[in-house]
What we know:
Elements: H1 3-37, E1 58-64, E2 71-74, E3 80-83, E4 87-90, H2 96-107, E5 115-122, E6 127-132, E7 138-141, H3 148-154, E8 167-171, E9 174-178, H4 180-184, E10 199-202, E11 207-212, E12 218-221, H5 228-234, E13 247-252, E14 257-262, H6 264-269, E15 284-287, E16 291-293, E17 303-305
Parallel strand pairs: 6-10, 11-15
Antiparallel strand pairs: 1-2, 1-5, 3-4, 6-7, 8-9, 8-10, 11-12, 13-14, 13-15, 16-17
Amino acid sequence: MNRRNFLYTICRVDHAVWLSSLLVVVMLAAPIATAQTQPVQTRPVPLDKDYVIGPEDVLDIQVWGSKDLNQTVFVRPDGRLSVSVMGEIAAGGKTVQQLQDHLSAVYAKMVKGAVVTVIVKEIRSRPVYFIGGFGNPGAMQLTRDLTLLQAISVVGGVVPSADGEKGFLLRGSNKIPIDFTRLVKGDLSQNPKLQPGDSVVAPLADVVYVSGEVRKPGAVKYTEDLTVWKAIAQAGGLTPLAAPGSTDILRGTAEKKEQIRVDLDRIIRSPDENSDVRLQPNDILSVPRRSFTIGGPSGGAPTPAYGTTPAPGGQPRP
Length: 318
């Protein structure tokens, strides 16, 4: 046999071996592929067996052995629900396991080998209400055990305009004081475990309104120690055109307003003799713009006159 015929024979043998190996692999893989394409009957794992069903919860009831009996049901406010064949039954106050056992016992008499699975699809019976100064006030469902601190992180926290020190929790007829300021600083005495039906309230704080020549006009949160200068500082401070000697406080109702003049220049120069003025809720603090005289004593550039508080001689006080 010459070299050419020998190589040809070797190639044919290798090709035959390769085809045989491929055929064996296909035959071995066929049962595996068939098994993977056939649907496998698996039952969902029931969850929350100790969960107590309440009004407005939504349940999935699955009857293995009779798909026609599968349904999604809504628990009515009276705690009852309607299920196929059985009609109305009481569900409120039962655990998921108790309801499942009851349905299994009844359906087993109608469908041979029936197995019932109850799944809580939506929890709607465990609301906790967040009212007032929260990032996202409203109702949230207590789907698991939560402390107050954990819950307020879910609803966006306490907003700056809330009066955090005067919060409270309503539980039935009880009013439990809550100091959110102490809570966020780690005071666990202010961190109760929440219960369904609780209402958590963060009152919106009183405010003082700062207007005129300040850098950030608007509302400033009122505190018991808030003074004119503190309010101006929270509003960003005075602008270069401000006339601090002529600051006014408007106080009172729309029918009866009181105007109080505050000379901030004097407070700065002599703080011991001129104490800062304490503000009250809903005060309006107004800082006017400087007034200018046209031409100085020698006919030069305009000379600013701070404020309009009269000085000796009837001229604006420099």
